[in-house]
Amino acid sequence: MSVVAQSLTSWVDGEAHLDDVTLTLEPGRIHTVLGRTGAGKTSLLRVLAGLSDVDSGDVLLDGRSLREVPPWRRETAMVYQQFINYPHLTALENVMFPLRRAKVPAAEAQRRAKEALEQVGLTHLSDRRPGALSGGQQQRVAIARALARRARILLLDEPLVNLDFKLREQLREELRGLFSGVGETVVVYTTTEPAEALMLGDEVIVMHEGRVAQVGSPAVIFETPATTAVARVVNDPPMNVIPGTLQGEHVAVRGLDLLPRASHLAGFADGPYLVGIPAPSLTFGTGPGVLATITFVEISGSETFVHVDLQGTELVVRAEGIHDVSTGDRVSMTVDPSRLFLFTEDGTLAAAPPHGRS
Amino acid sequence: MSRWPRRAQYLLLIVWAVFTAMPFLWAITTSFKDVNAVQGHVTYVPWLEFEPTLEAWRQIFGGAGGVNLVGPFVNSLIITVCASAIAIVLGALAAYGLSRFRYRIGPAKNKDIVFFFVSQRIMPPVVLVIPFFFLLQMPGLLDTRLGLIIVTVALLLPIAVWVMVDFFDNIPREIDEMAMLEGCTPMQAFLRAIVPNSAPGLTVAAMFCAVFGWNDFFFAFRLTFTQVQTLPQAVVALNSSIPPWWTLSAAALFGIIPLLVLAVLVERYLSKGNLAGAVR
Amino acid sequence: MATLTLENVAQTYNPGEDPDRWALKPLELTLESGRTYALVGPSGCGKTTLLNILSGLVTPSHGRVTFDGVDVTSTPTRLRNIAQVFQFPVIYRSMTVRDNLAFPLECRGWPRSRIEERVRAVAEALGLADGLDVPASRLSADEKQLISLGRGLVRDDVAAVLMDEPLTVIDPQLKLSLRRKIRQLSDEFAPTVIYVTHDQYEAMTFAQELLVMSEGRLIQRGTPEQLFESPSSTFVGWFVGSPSMNFLRGTLERGAARVGEHLIDLAWSPPVPHGSEVTVGIRPEYIRIVDGGSHPGDASETSVHGRLVAVQDHGESRVCEIQVREQQVAVKVRREVHVPKVGSFVDLGLPRSKCLPYVEGRLATCGD
Amino acid sequence: MTALRRYKVLFLAPGLLTLFLIIIFPLLFTVRVAFSSWNVASPQMDWNAGANFVRMVHDGRFWSSVLHLVVLAGGTVLVEYVIGFALALAVWREVRGRRLLRVLFLVPMMTTPVVMAAVWQMMFHESLGPVNDLLGRIGIAPVPWLTSPGPAYVALMTVEIWQWTPFMMLLMLAGLLSLPREPFMAAAIDGAGPLRTFRRVTFPLLAPVSVTALIIRLIEASKMSDTVYVLTSGGPGSATETPGYYLYIRGLKEQQTGYAGSLSLTYLVLMIVALTIISALLVRAFRSQEELR
């Protein structure tokens, strides 16, 4: 009972929305699809739902082709990033709608709908129409409607992106709980936020320019990103990727001093590479080190991302907590050489830092 | 700041309000006049300048020496309602399809098909009426309500499509997509998810259809004769000979009263912003 | 640039309404010339109402608004000399970039040569000097937002620049560069800026000072660091920071907080009687998971025992949820820190200096 | 997907077919009959090879009717646009009695054109109508409204403007009401007064609506014949005849079906060509408002 996407390819106006996408999606697991806007995430969901056609490739459910199965017979539930509900129905009627379509008896449908609304904490608002609900509440109704159906495939297309910051955080937490009860459903969840993908996903699918760049558990994706594209998209802020060379005992990176070659970089031939410097592996201070100029400071609430100009190279540093530094300050940079990633010049991963992390 | 834009605004409003109201005021006063009040010199104010009488109103409802306008009124009503209903059903279906799916008929794409519908308004009635005459003559539909209904549908369909395409374009397509994912066929999605949320658009389309349907004169004039007479036809017939102005005025007012109700409705929908989609 | 003050300003849209339900409760506020402020809070907290009062779109039902001491309470927007950047980019579609930037100056009847000079300077700063003759309608959304901002900055006498969630419709990938550009421009031109957002990330990145609002009230104002380190209320502790601050309910006992069998040392003792309710507020970043007794806690730290119920992978860090008695505590640890198995019991180290006492939802004052 | 394709057809086909059937027969019939000598004496579909068109070329009355139409339609639509836009602006924002005024201003377009033309005919009556009476009170001699060419034009255009300015106002007002608030706030913030705001914000934003409204009204106005029929019957003489009315005389009154067919065809082609050119020009003119090229 799995969903298989077989070399899905779709071109729209000479642009590949999906390019040879092959995936196996298992029931009972949460698959998060991580990628920037335009990476093909929404196209993938629409093809799975039967809402868009592909130029080639097929979707198989339990080995059976879905090519000629129209959307209304696919048993797919979807939650959109816009809060989509039927404006003329109350919250309860909205949740009951798909159940009644699936010929669930009225009493049973009502019971299940109420249960789903309770799960998302909206029991007290079940008589309201979507127009009288806040954005967050509307999205809860949409989620309840998708859950109550117990559809075979549950697709969520950046469901939290249009919510307020705190609401997003809160609902993300709740989704983890809600997903734990999906049983035999195949869940696919798209997002542009790495933390969301890693936190919710049993399996993370990273997409880049219409292709699947990497599939794996959150730990695998984060700790051994297959390409520089994955490394950038899975880190917040994106990983610094800079041309460098391996030279005997050292790693030379443009702008930085020669760094000692850490043990995980042994065994690679000397020569040019792309060096991945995770933002948290950089630290800034007043001590010795290479001097850099701060160009911009971002504060995420609990961390500070400091963008620096290091002799013409743009780097971003991630520091825990809130630091009182400002644009134009000169700081000294140090790098933890044991945390460097090594990519070949075409961007594929050569070496990742040893984990020993978990 | 100078205050003249504000003054110009009020001046315009007053002048235009008077201009708009004039024919109505004239028709209303005249409908209570008799031959003495019309001949000789022009009179305006009842009681002061002439003695009002209900004679004209009695005549148009079949009073002695008059014409009965009740029959034409019923004809107009039946034809307008039926033709509008058919045009809206066909128009809404086509508009929904054009708003949601991609069509290709020969070289024509969606925009061209919409244009084809709307462009039918360019056909002058006088060009159509002779062929229609023969078209209706063959199956014996001349001088029948059914015949006029069919012709009126052709007249109204472009209007219905024009209003509804824009309206549907403004309903998020995710709503019907979701309905489909939840087990509705496209037709069910249309009927259960879209139509219930289209009351404003359908109402606007219905209002336009009603206005253009009710006000048609030319087709009725040439395609019906004795059996079926519509209200505009009956009113104009009064005008053709020596005008009994009071009867003509009463008949004219009677013929436009149903549409005054529509003006109020249109304004209400306008204020709610429901007409916006139609003009973009 | 001007100093803006709100004197006892309040707003209700229905006269006679219960003051507790007013959209904006009476407020005293001074915003100093040349500083950047962020107005943050959940939707419906009154931040947009406050912005509209400053822009003149809404005349407050109570109180007085002054710009540099001049009463502008009922001055129309057009005469207020403010600039505003909206959620959706607003440009004059029928004009070029140059004409867009020149427009506010033309409206004020500046001489041509001065306009040209000023427009050039601002376009230079915006990075749009090369495209001055391009129709503004052809620009991308982020460039349009820059133009909106530029129309404010060309006026060297602008009292304040208001920004109403200006990044909402900007593609996530472009947000960083636009945010950086806006920040640069406000550093360079140093106008008084009021930036409205629900996003603490944007607010902290952008503003020198944050004004946190909730339910029509100003809850706390301060620098990002102040809000993070010592939130004045449990609301601010929850609203600022991700994940939110932990709050452990307990009772006061010998100057510390009794939570079950634990006696948690507080940064300071709140001035309330022994036995009264006190809530311990501590940021997830400051809690340590004590690993197998390898780092025994010293006197500066309270040790708390609990069960690890869940671990969230956030990438660079993990958030562990630990059940302490019937309360949940979130602990944020760096990825390389070893995390025990879910279900096992762990000891947590709570640094005394980071355990803030809250009484009735407010940060308690220092007792002594 | 086959299932989806079936539904696609199901939605569009009924409407498209209905229109096609109702329109295509008349069109084909007109084309065929245009090449026949069908008239009341001999109603037959013979072939007279374009003799009708030769006759038409020399039919000065037809060509002057086209000219009359250009003046009448062009003139009225232009006036309707200006007044309609002004009225829409005037009742758009806070004005006392705004809703009542809107209803009043909408009423004329709801009324039956032929019926109102009959009412106007009374008003324009040379001796018994109120128009001349009121003019007389301010010292203007009676005008022979419907019996001399110049005044007849004025009368016709007055009635058309009275009837259809509301439609223009309706479209422009609907457009105005759908505009976002922000551009107007931005203009106020930049310090623009009412005139500058109109020139730089309102007018450009409404350019697409203006094009739609003008084209629709031109299409409708080019069919003008009902009002002519009731008000002047094309008179005096044939001074106010429009092609629509002239066709009515030839085709229906005199039943020269074949000749009327050729006139119809020419009239239709002329209209389509003219309206296509006008729309293209309008779109271009207004696009420059919207986006400089």
Automatic annotation (TrEMBL), chain A:
GO terms for molecular function: ABC-type ferric iron transporter activity; ATP binding; ATP hydrolysis activity. SUPFAM superfamilies: MOP-like, P-loop containing nucleoside triphosphate hydrolases. Keywords: ATP-binding, Cell membrane, Membrane, Nucleotide-binding, Translocase, Transport. The keyword Cell division does not apply. It holds the Pfam family TOBE. One of its GO terms (cellular component) is ATP-binding cassette (ABC) transporter complex, substrate-binding subunit-containing. InterPro entries: AAA+_ATPase, ABC_transporter-like_ATP-bd, ABC_transporter-like_CS, ABC_transpr_FbpC, ABC_transpr_MalK/UgpC-like, Mo/tungstate-bd_C_term_dom, NA-bd_OB-fold, P-loop_NTPase. This is ABC transporter ATP-binding protein. It comes from Ornithinimicrobium tianjinense. The lineage of its organism: Bacteria, Bacillati, Actinomycetota, Actinomycetes, Micrococcales.
From TrEMBL, chain B:
The chain crosses the membrane at residues 77-101, 113-134, 146-168, 189-214, 245-266. Residues 73-266 form the ABC transmembrane type-1 domain. CDD domains: TM_PBP2. Belongs to the binding-protein-dependent transport system permease family. MalFG subfamily. It holds the Pfam family BPD_transp_1. This is Sugar ABC transporter permease. One of its GO terms (biological process) is transmembrane transport. Keywords: Cell membrane, Membrane, Sugar transport, Transmembrane, Transmembrane helix, Transport. The keyword Coiled coil does not apply. It is found in: Cell membrane. Its main location: membrane. The keyword Isomerase does not apply. It is a multi-pass membrane protein. GO terms for cellular component: plasma membrane. It comes from the Bacteria.
From TrEMBL, chain C:
Residues 4-240 form the ABC transporter domain. The keyword Nucleotide-binding applies. GO terms for molecular function: ATP binding; ATP hydrolysis activity. This is ABC transporter ATP-binding protein. InterPro entries: AAA+_ATPase (IPR003593), ABC_transporter-like_ATP-bd (IPR003439), ABC_transpr_MalK/UgpC-like (IPR047641), Mo/tungstate-bd_C_term_dom (IPR008995), OB_MalK-like (IPR040582), P-loop_NTPase (IPR027417). One of its GO terms (cellular component) is ATP-binding cassette (ABC) transporter complex, substrate-binding subunit-containing. Keywords: ATP-binding, Nucleotide-binding, Transport.
Automatic annotation (TrEMBL), chain D:
Belongs to the binding-protein-dependent transport system permease family. Its main location: membrane. Residues 66-278 form the ABC transmembrane type-1 domain. One of its GO terms (cellular component) is plasma membrane. It is a multi-pass membrane protein. It is found in: Cell membrane. Keywords: Cell membrane, Membrane, Transmembrane, Transmembrane helix, Transport. It comes from Ornithinimicrobium tianjinense. Coiled coil: none annotated. The chain crosses the membrane at residues 9-35, 66-91, 103-123, 161-180, 201-219, 265-286. InterPro entries: ABC_transporter_permease (IPR051393), MetI-like (IPR000515), MetI-like_sf (IPR035906). This is ABC transporter permease. GO terms for biological process: transmembrane transport.
